[in-house]
Fold:
Amino acid sequence: MDAYVPVYSEGGKTWFPSNEAAKELVHLNHAWRDIAKLNEIRLAAGRSDPIADKLLLKFMLVEFFSALDHARRLQALIRTSPKLIAGKPAPFRYITKRDLERVTDAYKGLWVELAPLESLIADIRNNIGAHRSAEIGCEVEALWEKLDPDRFVRLINQIPSVFKAVEELNIYDWSFIDAQTNMMSLFGTRIIPDWEDAFSEGEVKQG
Structure:
């Protein structure tokens, strides 16, 4: 069954997020699918309509700015999630060494690409995007001029890399409610923990 995604898969037999990590993952997925759909429309329009091209890119960046909030919150939840430690009982949900390394690398790629552009994206969002600046003049015109897809495409494409790194982590709770029986199901824990990928107690104390 699919995970709950409004617009793209409404209602029906879907799994709903049941903890904060799962909610942030779903929000990140929502934002990315909106970005991808906007880009699909932008590419279909082609460069023959420069106004439409800039408008759609602007809306993509507004969604991207929202995606960053969820990516940051999810990263914080991952960092503080219980770890699988050799010689100790396995937590219900946990992070392994390889999990943490893979996620850290994916997020590093995002933050490196974001650093030189974050201020510009914030200005676009706050002045000509989700909010409209009271100012009219050269500064606003300059922001519109900077709405060039080539400037942002590499950065925007970091979101799928992050999502791929985090989507299968063992930190998410999902529930399914059967409307006919009113029974709720919850994903259980792994039957056999990944002991070969566990942290040592020393590693956990150091990090």
Remarks:
- The longest strand covers residues 174-178.
- Residues 1-7 have pLDDT under 50 and may be disordered.
